[in-house]
Write a structure and sequence with these properties.
Helix content of chain B: 55-70%
Main location (chain A): membrane
Membrane topology (chain A): Multi-pass membrane protein
CATH superfamily of the largest domain in chain B: Cytochrome C biogenesis protein
Distance between the termini of chain A: 41 Å
Distance between the termini of chain B: 122 Å
Number of helices of chain B: 6
Number of strands of chain B: 0
Largest sheet of chain A: 5 strands, antiparallel
Keywords (chain A): Cell inner membrane, Cell membrane, Cytochrome c-type biogenesis, Membrane, Transmembrane, Transmembrane helix
Structural class of chain A: alpha+beta
Organism (chain A): Methylobacterium aerolatum
Number of helices of chain A: 21
Shape of chain A: globular
Number of domains of chain A: 4
CATH class of the largest domain in chain B: Mainly Alpha
Structural class of chain B: mainly alpha
Largest sheet of chain B: none
Number of strands of chain A: 9
Radius of gyration of chain B: 34 Å
Oligomer: heterodimer
Order of helices and strands of chain B: HHHHHH
Number of domains of chain B: 2
Strand order of the largest sheet of chain A: 2-3-4-5-6
Helix content of chain A: 55-70%
Protein name (chain A): Cytochrome c-type biogenesis protein CcmF
Strand content of chain B: under 5%
């Protein structure tokens, strides 16, 4: 019964999203402001309905209701509770429902954000959002219904793919979707602005928190996914340029560009048309990402859903939204009045350069991901575009981008002084050079790129610190040398300034983490218990191999003691092989030993004829910095989000408000 | 005695489980110790080549990372060719001749991949060109000089002051 009610709630959400979509159009033609209010109510209602549907599906999974197809295919009575819950979105139907849940959640948030968004913009935004909700709920109901029953109900379910039975999966998709879908709001704002034919700093200010929130979640989601792949897939890589990873990277890059261009728009009223285009692109790329993952068009590790009818439906959604929004853009964008002017060498100029490199990087990933598909369609040639291509093209675009980060921060708005900026950055450049050379000297004979990368990371870190120091020290007449005043001013700086500095420092941390992988080392040997293998600065000894029983798997675990070169034991790593009888699948579980920011990574291999065990060990120096840096970036974004001007919201004309109030005496 | 028996029974059982688990036909893993060549220089070359070759039956993995039996065959083939004295390029072209261009993770630079390889440079150049043209179009509008008649009008107005 609960399942049927959930199904019904979803159908109700479809109807409500239709109301949400139509009301603003009607409201625009009528003078009754109550109609606009209905839009918000419909958005809240749609969210409540989808939330109920999602809860119903979760209930079916938790209670192992095997009369529901979705539960049969993805659950098992013996599965731990956490995976029964995460199993709800560990499959196609459920993950689409999560997608829509988050979509309507954002809609409800916009409906609730009365202070920060002007009413007309809010209604139009919600209308566009209603259209997105409508199409996706329709997609779920017609092609991917999670509430389908099976008769007769089997006694046991088929269990979730063991690779997905991991805490990482419990968090990764919701975070990623919060990011992906968060861009639907900026998209809706952009479409609303195009429909109104009006865009200004108030728009930029209203959009910025949503972009920032989406970006923060997407950053965390990507980092989480990368870490999950690192420890779960068993070969120690942290980014594989897999189409599905690229699918999440593209909206992230476009979103990063958008974040920077809205700054220009909010402060200087410039780059309007471009910002609108980026908002459209960010969400379009999220949709492309959904298409790539959900249709399984590009085979990859994540394609656990392959069904052509779904693929065609999602392709139609893509055409509708991307084609529709770009047409709207082409038609209405010329109406948007261009704003403030600026010299090429200025804060705006550097942000334009930032956007140029980000968009070029995004285009490279896009073309690289889809090229094999297009080439095969056009000529029949089958080629592969793999990591060597992306490393060779993406990195050269990323480096100049990273180099200009501190420059942009040092330049003034409107017209900057290159010489003065260079002088201010002299410290950062000098220290980075010294760090790079010192590291090069210490690791002489090793890879050349690693010290360069560490130097670049140091440059970004110091650049971020200088950002705060130079702002606190003040310019012109306010300039001071007193440390007390500087500290006082630094504390008083807006949180967005600290957030920016923190996010940029996070980039530096990531760069150092990536660069340090140049010194990673690997050890591979067949060992009998008692034998050892040297990897990096450590010696690993295979102690014993022992069986273990998990809730829904059997495991053979190899226990490896890690010692430093002097023979002191530092810890034990366990790596195993798990067999899941319900799916007849075997999965390798890697073992990790963390020392500071570095890790020893152990992975079990094949068994030799003499009973020896193949053991693969990696020493990964500073590898944790890659993900910690991403977390620092997200923290920076979150800090900006708490900035006063985001909380206070957009200034509204007192007169306009009085008129609105006068028009509705009943309120 | 009765207390010991279940334990030995358990141990025998667990030994069996262990054997089954370890011998399970399986995501054997990437490069295995038995495959490694004795000559470290040759092995290093083999690893570098493997990282550029795709496992044909897997989803977007190099043969160096892949667990599939076919990837293992390819790894052994690469090592075999290296031991027979082939150069890196010769090994690659040998494999491409057998399995097609699809096997290369780094696409060749040729007519049909021209757009692919030129995308980064084209994106930056076209973007820069676009920005430059927009900036040029807008600047004169901002700092437009007055026409002669307008100058005269301004002068007339100023004189009247």
């Amino acid at each position: 019964m609960i399942v049927e009610t959930g199904h019904f709630a979803l159908a109700l959400a479809l109807a409500l999203s239709l109301v949400q979509m139509v009301m603003p159009v009607w409201a625009a033609r009528s003078s009754d402001p109550a109609l606009r209010q209905t839009t918000s109510q419909a958005a809240l209602g749609a969210f409540a309905c989808v939330l109920f549907a999602f809860a119903a599906l979760t209930w079916a999974h938790v209670s192992s209701d095997f009369s529901v197809q979705n539960v049969v295919e993805n659950s098992h009575t013996q599965k731990p509770l956490i995976y029964k819950i995460s199993g709800v979105w560990g499959n196609h139907e459920g993950s689409m429902l999560l997608w829509v849940l988050i979509l309507t959640l954002f809609g409800a948030c916009v409906a609730g954000a009365r202070n920060s968004v002007p009413p007309r913009l809010r209604a139009n935004t919600l209308g566009v959002q209603g259209l997105i909700t409508f199409v996706f709920v329709l997609f779920i109901i017609t092609t991917s219904n999670p509430f389908t029953r099976v008769v007769p109900a089997p006694l046991e379910g088929r269990d979730l793919n063991p690779l997905l039975q991991d805490p990482g999966l419990a968090i990764h998709p919701p975070l990623l979707y919060l990011g992906y879908v968060g861009f639907s709001i900026t998209f809706a704002f952009a479409a609303a602005a195009l429909i109104e034919g009006r865009i200004d700093a108030v728009w930029a200010r209203a959009v910025r928190p949503w972009t920032l929130a989406a970006w923060v979640f997407l950053t965390l989601g990507i980092a989480m996914g990368s870490y999950w792949a690192y420890y779960e897939l068993g070969w120690g890589g942290w980014w594989f340029w897999d189409p599905v990873e690229n699918a999440s990277l593209m909206p992230w890059i476009a979103g990063t560009a958008l974040l920077h261009s809205t700054v220009v728009m909010e402060k200087r009223d410039a780059l309007k048309v471009w910002t609108v285009l980026l908002a459209i692109l960010s969400f379009s790329l999220s949709l492309v990402g959904t298409f790539i993952v959900r249709s399984g068009v590009l085979t990859s590790v994540h394609s656990f859903a392959t069904d052509p009818t779904r693929g065609v439906f999602i392709l139609a959604i893509l055409v509708l939204f991307i084609g529709g929004s770009l047409t709207l853009f082409a038609w209405r964008a010329p109406l948007l009045r261009q704003g403030g002017l600026f010299a090429p060498i200025s804060r705006e100029g550097s942000l334009v350069l930032n956007n140029l490199f980000l968009v070029a990087a995004c285009a490279t990933v896009f073309v690289g991901t889809l090229y094999p598909l297009l080439l095969e369609m056009l000529t029949g040639d089958k080629i592969t575009v793999g990591p060597p291509f992306f490393n060779a093209t993406f990195v050269p675009l990323a480096i100049p981008l990273l180099l200009i980060v501190p420059f942009g921060q040092t330049l003034a708005w409107k017209r900057g002084d290159m010489l003065a900026a260079s002088q201010r950055l002299f410290v950062a450049l000098g220290v980075a050079l010294v760090v790079g050379l010192a590291v090069l000297a210490m690791t002489w004979g090793g890879p050349m790129m690693a010290p360069v990368g560490v130097g670049l990371g140091a440059y970004l870190l110091i650049g971020s610190a200088l950002e705060i120091v130079s702002r606190a020290r003040g310019y012109g007449v306010r300039r001071t040398r007193s440390l007390g005043v500087i500290a006082q001013r630094a504390v008083g700086l807006p949180r967005s300034a600290w957030g920016t500095a923190l996010a940029h420092a996070g980039v530096g941390v990531v760069v150092i983490g990536i660069a340090a992988q140049g010194w990673a080392s690997e050890g591979l040997a067949s060992l009998n218990p008692g034998q050892s293998l040297t990897v990096g600065p450590y010696v690993a000894t295979l102690d014993r191999v022992a069986p273990k029983k998990g809730p829904n798997y059997e495991e053979a675990g190899a226990f490896v003691t890690i010692r430093d070169r002097d023979g002191h034991a530092i810890g034990e790593v366990e790596t195993g092989r798990r067999f899941y009888p319900s799916r007849q699948m075997t999965v390798t579980e890697s073992g990790l030993l963390t020392r500071g920011f570095s890790q020893v990574y152990a992975s079990l291999g094949e068994v030799g004829k003499d009973g020896s065990i193949g053991l693969r060990l990696y020493y990964k120096p500073l590898v944790l910095l890659i993900w910690l840096g991403a977390v620092v970036m997200a923290l920076g974004g979150a800090l900006s989000l708490t900035d006063r001007r985001m909380r206070v919201g957009a200034p509204a004309k007192a007169k306009g408000r009085a008129v609105a109030r006068g028009a509705v005496p009943a309120e | 005695m009765s207390a010991v028996r279940p334990i030995t029974g358990g141990r025998r059982w667990s030994g069996l489980v262990l054997a089954v688990l370890l011998l399970a036909p399986l995501p054997a893993q990437a490069v295995q110790p038995s495959e490694v060549l004795k000559d470290p220089a040759l092995e290093h070359r083999a690893r570098e080549i493997s990282e550029e070759l795709r496992c044909l039956v897997c989803q977007n993995q190099s043969i160096d990372d892949s667990d599939a039996p076919l990837a293992k065959d390819l790894r052994l083939l690469v090592r075999d060719r290296l031991e027979k004295g082939d150069s890196d390029a010769a090994v690659k072209s040998y494999i491409v001749a057998r399995y097609g261009e699809f096997v290369l993770l780094r696409p060749v630079f040729a007519a049909h991949t021209l757009i692919l390889w030129l995308t980064p440079a084209l994106a930056v150049l076209l973007g820069a060109l676009g920005i430059w043209r927009l900036a040029r179009r807008r600047r004169p509008a901002a700092a437009q000089h007055l026409s002669a008649s307008e100058e005269a009008e301004v002068a007339a107005l100023l004189r009247r002051e």
